[in-house]
TrEMBL record:
<dbReference type="InterPro" id="IPR000086">
    <property type="entry name" value="NUDIX_hydrolase_dom"/>
</dbReference>
<keyword id="KW-0378">Hydrolase</keyword>
<dbReference type="InterPro" id="IPR015797">
    <property type="entry name" value="NUDIX_hydrolase-like_dom_sf"/>
</dbReference>
<protein>
    <submittedName>
        <fullName>NUDIX hydrolase</fullName>
    </submittedName>
</protein>
<feature type="domain" description="Nudix hydrolase">
    <location>
        <begin position="43"/>
        <end position="176"/>
    </location>
</feature>
<dbReference type="GO" id="GO:0016787">
    <property type="term" value="F:hydrolase activity"/>
</dbReference>
Amino acid sequence: MDKRLLKEFLSNYRTPFEEEKAMIPDFLALLDDPIAFSRDRKEGHFTASAWIVNRRRTHTLLTLHRKLQKWLQLGGHADGNQNLLEVAMDEAREESGLTSLRLVDRFIFDLDRHLIPANATDPQHFHYDVRFLIEAEMDEPLIISPESKDLAWVGFDMTAELVGNNASILRMLEKTSRSEILL
């Protein structure tokens, strides 16, 4: 997926969630910035995530993010790579050790723009996160990366309790639980 295809996917992206729909113009506008895929854009930049689920759609793989101290989906910075699908798959492999990862649909699964707090090296900024639906086998061993404190397959029935009021994760959970997501 190159920048041209990402623009096409974003332009044609449809969602029933108003908060997500309202973000689409910001994502499209960011594409015009030559450093949109780089951390050098201090106001905010593209990131990519993998919403990893098991084949039966009963569990999702979450990581306890070391810096943010929150349970989140796996993903990370584009670091100049305009192929966000590739970024999401690479981050999923690096952060989990899984080799059974399989893209469910090449189209965008979810969008979220969220604020990242300032730290010792970076000012407060936005992540424009493009998310993809990925399947993996639950019986494969997990490898915790240095970016994580823990990894866990979490049952859909326990996800809301673990992530608290993280609206974007609850939205992805709702999307996954809908009947139109094919097994």
